[in-house]
Amino acid sequence: MVRPHLPLNALRAFEASARHQSFTKAAIELCVTQAAVSHQVKTLEQRLGAVLFRRLPRGLALTDEGLALLPVLRDAFDRIGDLLEQFDTGHVREVLTVGVVGTFAVGWLLPRLRAFTDAHPFIDLRLMTNNNRVDIAAEGLDYAIRFGDGAWHGIDAAPLFDAPLSPLCAPDIAARLGSPADLMQEKLLRSYRSDEWPRWFAAAGLEAPPIRGTVFDSSWMMVDTAIQGDGVALAPPLMFSRPLEAGRIVRPFAIDVTLGGYWLTWLKSKQITPGMRAFRAWIAAACGRLSDTP
Predict the structure, then answer these.
(1) Contact predicate 200/257, CB 8 Å
(2) Dist. CA 191–CA 174, nearest whole Å
(3) What is the C-alpha separation between 38 and 45, in angstroms, rounded?
(4) Which of 120, 74, 130, 73 is nearest to 98 (CA)?
(5) Average pLDDT, whole number, for the chain?
(6) Per-residue model confidence (pLDDT) at position 117
(7) Least-confidence region, from 90-94, 220-224, 228-232
(8) How large is the average pLDDT for residues 169-180?
(9) Does 74 or 289 have the greater pLDDT score?
(10) Considering the entire predicted model, what is its pTM?
(11) What is the pLDDT confidence band of residue 88, given thresholds at 50, 70 and 90?
C-alpha cells in the first residue's frame, strides 16, 4: 500500500512531542502554539491510520505504533541535521574516517597532519588508531593505513613505503653490544609477529635464541619499554626518528630486515569520494609516490 504524502511539519511535531512527552513543550521548541502541534499530530495519525499517542491527564504516552515510528524518524532527522551542518560555511564539508596503525600515526602521520588539514579545511578528518588488526567495513572506515605485504582479501591497497626493522635500545644497553651475537645476552622484546627476531638474526648470519616474555601488539609501546632500559626492541627506525635524534634510543647495528611496509587500504566496493581522493593524493605525495595517486 502506497502511503499518502506525509507533511514534514507533522513528522517534526510528532518527534518533538514524543521526545518531550508533551504537546506544550513541543510547541515551545517549535515556536508554534500547542493547538498547532496537536493538530499536526492528529493529521499525521489520520494519514497513517494509526494512533501514535495516548493522551493522559498529565502528558502523553507513546502507543506501540508511536514507539515503532520514533527511532526511525529521529535517525532521519539526525542525518538530515548532520548533512545540513556541512553547509554552514557555504561549502560542502566531508567527514573522512581513517584507521591508522598506532606506530604509523605517532611516528609519521601526526607530525605531518597539519599540512593536510590546512590544505583541505572542508574535510573533517577522523583518525581511529588500531594495532594493525582492522575490519574496514565493520568499523565504517574510508581508509585504513596498515603494515603488511599489501595482500588483504576484498581490499585495494596502495604502497606508501617499506619499513625495515632494526634493533633499538637504550644507550647504556647499546654500550655493551659489540656484535649482533651480544644480543643473545639481552632481553629481547617481541611483537605478536613471532618471525621478526628469527628473520633478523638470519640476516645477521646467526641462529635466533629462544625468545620469551611479554608480547606487544604495538611497536610504540615496545620501543617505549626499550627506552626505559627494559630490553631491546625490533622496530622500524623510520617511525622513531625523534627519540633517535634526541639520543633517548640507539640503533646499535646497521643490519635490518624488511618484512613488509605501510599501505593505504580501502574496500574494493567503496565508492571513492572527493575527500578520499584528496587524502590519497596528499599522502602519496608526502611519501614520495607522486605517480601513485588516483
Answers:
(1) yes
(2) 20
(3) 11
(4) 130
(5) 89
(6) 92
(7) 90-94
(8) 96
(9) 74
(10) 0.67
(11) low
- End-to-end Cα separation, the chain, in angstroms: 46
State the helix-helix crossing angle for 8-20 and 23-30, rounded to 10 degrees: 120
Nearest by Cα to 187 from 205, 210, 163: 210
> Closest by alpha carbon to 279, among 262, 261, 266, 267?
266
Q: Which of 104, 101, 121, 112 is nearest to 163 (CA)?
A: 104
- Residue 207 grid cell: 641462529
**pLDDT (0 to 100) of residue 255:** 96
CB 276 within 8 A of CB 96: yes
What does the buried/exposed string (b/e) look like for 55-75 if buried means 16 or more CB atoms within 10 Å of the residue's CB? eeeeebebeeebeebbeebee
Instruction: Say if residues 195 and 128 touch (Cβ distance below 8 Å).
Output: no
Contacts of 63 (CB under 8 A, 6+ apart): 50, 51, 52, 53, 54
Separation between Cα atoms, residue 294 and residue 276, nearest integer Å: 10
DSSP lists the bridge partners of residue 190 as 215
Q: Enumerate domains of the chain plus CATH numbers.
A: 8-85 (1.10.10.10), 94-163+260-292 (3.40.190.10), 166-245 (3.40.190.10)
The sign of the dihedral angle between the CA atoms of 270, 279, 131, 183 is positive
